[in-house]
Amino acid sequence: MMRTNISPAPKRPSGTDMAAALKDRAWIELDRNSLRENVRSLKSLLPPGCELMPIVKANAYGHGAVLISKELNRLGIRSFCTATVSEGIELRRGGIKGEILILGYTHPEQFPMLEKYGLIQSVIDLSYARLLNSYGRKIRVHIKIDTGMHRLGERAERTEAIRDIFRLDHLVIKGIFTHLCADETNAEPDRGYTLKQVHAFFDVLTDLKKHGCGFGKVHLLASYGLINYPEYAEDYVRIGIALYGVLSSRTDMEKCPVRLSPVLSVKARVAVIKDLYAGEAAGYGLQYVAQSDRKIAVLSIGYADGIPRALSCGNGQVLIHGTAAPVVGRICMDQMLADITDIPDVKSGDIAVIIGKSGQKEITAYDLAEESGTITNEVLSRLGGRLNRILC
Ligand SMILES: *Cc1c(COP(=O)(O)O)cnc(C)c1O
Question: Is 57 among the residues known to form the active site?
Answer without folding.
Answer: yes
